[in-house]
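__Protein archive entry__

___
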Amino acid sequence: MKPVVRRARRISVKACAVNVALTALTAAAAVTATPASAQSNVTLYGQVDEWVGVTRFPANKTAWNVSGGGMSTSFWGMQGAEDLGGGYKAVFALESFLRAQNGQYGRFAGDTFFARNAYVGIDSPYGKVTAGRLTTELFVSTILFNPFADSYTFSPMVYHVYLGLSTFPTYTTDQGAVGDSGWNNAIQYSSPNYNGLSGNAMYAFGDSAGNNGKKKWSAQALYFHGAFAATAVYQYVNFNSTPGDIGSLVSGNATILGLRSQGIAQVGMTYDLKFLKFYGQYMYTQNEQDVGSWHVNTLQGGVSAPIGLGSAMASYVYSRDGGGLNQTHSTWAVGYDYRLSKSTDIYAAYMYDHYDNMSTGMTYGIGLRTKF
């Protein structure tokens, strides 16, 4: 995912070695050895988001907190490109999450330092190829087509996709995606944009001898044209972070045994009338075990509307198991985001979260986010 950031610092480095003490022959050789078209640019960027409020997960106790990532997870990063000529560029990005509330790196204790993105690649007129740790295509489609975007605190869709299976064992559920929003040992191809249509394909390796059959892969299409936008994405995994590690997942008090693979298909759309923007998503999750299987249907609907210098948002998500624990999961949220400047906004939001066999969860609070 390409982060949407404001470039506030740019360092331009131009290689051009000149030494007046050298002979004309030596100087000519030096110029010949250094391509005249080479130019590198490095950009520093990021955002800090902190909020104050209340969190209570389903079947859990209430906590008052000052925490990070109310509307977006705090991070900093740097990216760069070198012009190789002929429309080709060498590119890289290194991006690290952070927790401003305690000054620590990562989204949680033990998180990888450059967990958001860490890659190098080649950008060309025929598309871009990158390799390293990469943001998943499922995550990109999930956040672009719900009004609360990438909020792990207030977005109902993010809750249903990423805060379930194997992620929050404080409550018992077999819903949600296996794995993180970023994949290690991955390679991705991103196509050029053709009149608003683009595509991506990603493959992540088991990366160890004897585990060549362990893999993750996904494919995604995105379309943006005027008021209308749409996406379709499919993701398949048969391991989380280590080959063989999804064979036994613990979620709350339940242990899921013999899980072999998971496939997720998601479609989404938005339509912007300027005074009102509509969001819709449908996701089908298929989980395969050694014996038997189960699936989950998820549906999201949302709206946003400009009010004053800010935007009001509302979203509702419903998920239902077919097999497995046979759970229903419903979540809704409302919020208002007020823009103080091009780089800074304040927000307030409330989210209601409920599984049919647990006590209700809820989250509410106010926050401040600034980008650089």
Summary: The longest helix spans residues 24-33. Residues 261 and 334 are 35 Å apart (CA to CA). The chain has three helices and 21 strands.
